[in-house]
Design goal:
alpha/beta; seven-stranded parallel sheet; 46% helix; 9% strand; globular
């Protein structure tokens, strides 16, 4: 499955980690190289300015340049930026910036400055959709405290505000309810550690974390899972799950960046308020990554 012109969110789109220099400024050259490397290693596209890309601690100038860097590196059809913001007007401006940069779609969290009600959520998505790019909703009730339940997703899709959803609730049962209520709404795997379950349930794509470090084996896992090759998928899933589960933990950015360092990529530090992993956490991630490398999964 490859990225298609009319549904560019399908396939494996990597929520890219952002390389920083020693003084914690953005290393745009390293980021461009990383985006190209992901495509070369079988990924279908990238999602800059997601949580894994530390968008919350970027300046507006940095955030815009990250999108432009990704587009210059791999082409806009393969780039789906996160456009989350506290206000709907600002989120719409980020969607317009993505459109002007040449992107084909954007990913949008619900309002997350407060626990928004349904009317506010609908108005938020309606406003950002006015930018003219297809919107992929991002349901992360753990962090945002706003839950895009299947009934609300069906309403947003029915009113033309969203075309797909990155599902990060962890509740794999929702896949079937979403398919019943909104059969044309594309379900995207939103957490690495429920990949197999959501692929079996009919997911059309994966907004992925761990391909930042292990693209070939994780892409092979996804392709096997969505094609029904469960023998291959289950074997890879079992081997990779000690790492994939970190994508659903508070320290997911630090963990994935550490794994990148272990396999010889540029992971590096995070900007505050994120702090380094505790020694015992680092030991677990390092050991799991080294085991994956030894198994030929890097």
């Amino acid at each position: 499955m490859t990225v298609t012109e009319n549904r560019p969110w399908r396939g494996v789109l990597v929520a890219t980690a952002l390389p920083l220099t020693d003084d914690l400024s953005v290393d745009h050259d390293a980021y461009a190289e990383h985006c190209a490397w992901l495509i070369e290693n079988g990924c279908d596209g990238v999602v800059p300015n997601g949580s894994l890309g530390e968008y919350q601690v970027l300046t507006p100038e940095e955030r815009a340049k990250v999108v432009e860097t990704a587009v210059a590196a791999i082409g806009g059809a393969r780039v789906m930026p996160g456009v989350a913001a506290y206000g709907s007007a600002e989120a719409r401006r980020w969607a317009e910036q993505a459109r002007e940069a040449g992107c084909a779609a954007v990913m949008l969290l619900p309002p997350n400055a407060y626990r928004a009600d349904e009317r506010s959520v609908v108005a938020h998505y309606a406003e950002v959709a006015k930018a003219g790019l297809p919107v992929v909703a991002y349901n992360n009730p753990i962090d945002t405290k706003v839950d895009l339940v299947p009934e609300l997703l069906a309403r947003l899709h029915g009113e033309g505000h969203i075309h797909a959803v990155k599902e990060f609730s962890g509740d794999v049962r929702r896949a079937y309810r979403i398919a019943e209520l909104a059969p044309d709404l594309d379900l995207l795997i939103g957490a690495d550690d429920v990949l197999l379950e959501l692929a079996i349930a009919g997911a059309k794509g994966w907004v992925a974390g761990y391909p930042n470090a292990l693209p070939r084996s994780t892409v092979e896992l996804y392709r096997a899972a969505v094609s029904g090759d469960l023998a291959t998928a289950k074997s890879l899933y079992a081997q990779l799950h000690p790492l994939l589960r970190w994508d659903s933990r508070v320290e997911f950015v630090q963990a994935i960046k550490l794994s990148m360092d272990v396999v010889g990529r540029h992971g590096g530090r995070c900007r505050p308020p994120r702090v380094p992993l505790l020694p015992e956490q680092e030991a677990v991630v390092r050991a799991a990554t080294e085991k994956a490398v030894a198994a030929g999964l890097a």
